[in-house]
Design a protein that fits this description.
The protein has two helices and 15 strands. It is an alpha/beta fold. It is elongated, with a radius of gyration of 26 Å.
Length: 168
């Protein structure tokens, strides 16, 4: 019984070691790319797992295994580029050239979508064009937050105001 338990422990240790080494090798080969203010370029022979950009452009000529997301920037898929997940742009545009594919959804908030008819989109296409959507998404919630804070300040000042006795 002890011999069988010892063999099971050694087998488990070997399996965990192999799993750890294989996941490390996979992680070294395919990485996420996140940038703030610097463009992301995925070359024709490159493969990344996710591409996220704040205030910059994502240019895909290779393969994005997951999502491509740009906040305040654009996403350009060209030269047989592929995005297996969604392509989402907040405050920017998405351009899909011919013979490219996006397996998931294409979503544009506060920008525009330029799509070649030969571009393939596997999911839904949602385009909230124009600056009005940016106003609704970002400014309106801040207005309500400011109103709530002003009401709380007014309420606290009213409660803590010293009472003035009535003169006769």
């Amino acid at each position: 019984m002890k011999n069988c338990l010892r063999s099971l422990q050694i087998l488990s240790l070997c399996a965990l070691t192999c799993l750890g080494l294989s996941s490390t090798a996979f992680a070294a080969r395919v990485t996420d790319r996140t940038e703030f203010g610097h463009n992301i370029n995925v070359g024709p022979d490159e493969e990344v797992s996710e591409a996220t950009c704040f205030g910059c452009t994502i240019r895909v000529r290779g393969h994005v295994m997951g999502d491509a997301t740009a906040f305040g920037g654009s996403i350009i898929v060209e030269d047989h580029g592929k995005v297996n997940g969604d392509a989402i742009a907040f405050g920017g545009e998405i351009r899909l050239d011919k013979e490219v594919s996006v397996a998931g959804d294409v979503v544009v908030f506060g920008g525009r979508l330029r799509r070649d008819p030969a571009a393939s989109v596997g999911g839904e296409i949602t385009n909230f064009a124009g600056a009005g959507w940016m106003l609704v998404i970002f400014v309106l919630p801040l207005f309500f937050l400011g109103a709530v804070i002003a009401f709380i300040v007014w309420l606290v000042r009213r409660i803590t105001r010293p009472s003035v006795p009535a003169t006769a």
